Each structure stands twice: as structure tokens, then as C-alpha cells.
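Journal club prep, notes for RB
We'll compare a predicted complex against what the paper describes. Inputs for the zinc ion case:
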Amino acid sequence: MARMKTSKGIMPHLDIFDELLDHVQQDWEGLEVDFAIGEDDEFPEDRDFAYTEEEGGEICIVMAPKLATQPMERIRAVLMHEFGHAIDLSYDKEEIEETYYDDDREGEEDADLILPKTPERRADAIAEAAFGQRIFYDSENVETTIEEDGVHPRPKKLGL
Ligand SMILES: [Zn+2]
């Protein structure tokens, strides 16, 4: 896997990565998330576009080469989900729930972000709180930001 610097304007997935990283760093000062472009054979299924790994305290989002040519709404939703994992790996449950407590709805029992117990649905819940945008799963079982194209929450068959 080759690590590289982002170059604005050339690769849409790298620009979206930068934008999402800037966004989460507003809530999590000091959060470092690297990215890498993986090898094709790390993404055997059609629906595999990215994964997040932690090594020695360093978080890295590894993207499939094929992510670059996907529609923007797919790239964005796939990377939002991975940033959900990155935050989940970096902070404890209480910190995350407190950070995304919705105080506009104070007094309502369900105003708090209650994190799901399973990692994949937790990544979506964190990402949705972090970016203020819902993640859906399209007919190819890939994340999308377009409601009409997908279902929510993440289908059980994909692993929760
Ligand atoms: Zn995931």
C-alpha cells in the first residue's frame, strides 16, 4: 500500500477525504487520520471500496483504486462511514456521545446520540452525527448519501 500526499483537484476521492478530515477535526482537535490507496486484491468484493485500520495508534483509511471513478455520492458516503470507524477507534463511547449530544433538543429523551453496540452500525451513527448527513445502502449494498437510492439503517446481511 502506497501512502501519498493529497493533490487538490486531480482525484475527487482525495479532495473529499480532505474535506471530511477538516470537518471532523473541528470536533476532534488533534485527530490524525492518514489515507492510503490499497491494492486491487485487498478489495475482492464489488462492494469493497475502503477500510480503516489502526496500527500502533495510527489510524489509516485505505481506499480501493476503483473508488476514484465512483459517483460522488458514493465516494462521500463510503468515506463518511470510514471516518465513523476512525472516530470510533480513537475515542471512547462517552466522549463520542457527549460530543454529539444534540442540545437543540434538550429535554427530549432521544436527543442523545446512543451509539449502536455493533461496529458497522456504530460507524454509520457516528458519521451521521459528525457530518449531519444520513448514510443509506444502495442496490449494490454500497453506502450512498441519496435517500431515494437506498435503505437505512445498514442491512443485516452486510454484517453489523
Ligand atoms: Zn465499516
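Talking point for the session: The beta strands are 33-37, 50-55, 58-63, 136-137, 143-144.
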